[in-house]
């Protein structure tokens, strides 16, 4: 088996073995180097214009996780997981275009920055749509990266967004998209049944 085939098998196994885990072993610490590897892998997610619309707000101090508990409606994984990653979407991602295209040829840089700023200016809803869409891609990649490193996760949409913003002083520029606890499972996640492929896939046209 070639190295390419081995990587494909490994990716498939990671995807198939990832389940939402809600019970975690308290007191487990993810080494900083390993956590950074997970976040780096997550940051390689695709994004529109390569603007990388996500920010990862990482909460690892136990006292700060306790502050999040009522905001997440007392879901125990908030305090038992090793870290809680709050995935934010950047509503002003167009502002990083100059940095993203800093090393591009001048004509390419000017064209891309103009394209990005033009799109953001002409469509008032684009900033939010892109922030949520691209941060969601990063959130999924975060969960797969964590699983590949031997950790479990659960995507959480059940939280008080306004309270979260206030409690952690999140600037208006960023919109909370998802909360992702990461840690070692105390009980395995339950595999869920999936609708048949023919129910989910439409080929060519409705």
Automatic annotation (TrEMBL):
Keyword Oxidoreductase on entry: yes
InterPro entries: Nitroreductase, Nitroreductase-like
Keyword Oxidoreductase recorded: yes
GO molecular function, one term: oxidoreductase activity
Nitroreductase domain residues: 15-184
EC number assigned by the record: 1.-.-.-
Keywords: Oxidoreductase
Enzyme class: oxidoreductase
Pfam families reported for this sequence: Nitroreductase
Family: Belongs to the nitroreductase family.
Protein name: NAD(P)H nitroreductase YodC
Organism: Paenibacillus konkukensis
Taxonomic classification: Bacteria, Bacillati, Bacillota, Bacilli, Bacillales
Gene (UniProt): yodC_1
